[in-house]
Structures are given as structure tokens and as C-alpha cells.
Amino acid sequence: MYERNCDYADLAEEIIAEHVELQWIPQEGINIDFLESDKEKKSNGKRTYAECKHLNELEQFYSGMDFAIIVYEPNAALLDETQLRILIYHELLHVGKNGKVNPHDVEDFAAVINRFGSNWAKMKR
Q: For residues 76 and 70, what is the distance between their CA atoms, to the nearest angstrom?
């Protein structure tokens, strides 16, 4: 099941304000819906904490949104507050200026690795 999550939208606004490389998103009028899912998603045996999707024309018509960032709650619940902020930052980096989802430029985004390291999502034990 999917539900809108205004807390993630508010967090994204804060993150965009803090990171100049993301400030083009509101300036260009890009609309992002933030959803949470109760699904415990995995890909290639690894947890998927969240994903960014570019919405197709019909989805855009009905929602008024260009992208959706979906947070998989059972997995994201394993992250602390700092890791959750990094996760949302990471997903915002996927929002592409050309209406497509930006792929990682390395295994993650270089910007994320340079700021937070490559193991930012590892659970604290």
C-alpha cells in the first residue's frame, strides 16, 4: 500500500535549501510526490530503502506531479535520522532535468560518497 508522506516532503524542502545542486528543482517547477510503502522491497538480495520514479504522462495528468519518491518503510525504519536525510538527498539527486531519472554516476552518487562515505546506509550496530 502507498500513502503520501508530508514529513518526507518537508524534509526534502530542507535538504534542497541546504544543497545548491538541488535548488534547480523548485526553480524549474518540478513537482515531486513523496510516498511511503509498507513493502519490504529488495533488489538483487539487497534492501531497497527508497526509489525515484519519473511519472508517465497519464500519472502526471492525474497527480499533477513529475516524479515520485517512494520510501519503503520497513527498510527505512532501520536508518537513523542522519541516514534518512542522506537517503532523501540521494533520491533527490535522481531527479533529472531532462524529465528522466538520473542514474548513479558510480555505485552511488559521487556527491553522496564525497560527503558521507560509501557505507552511509549501513545499519549502526
A: 11
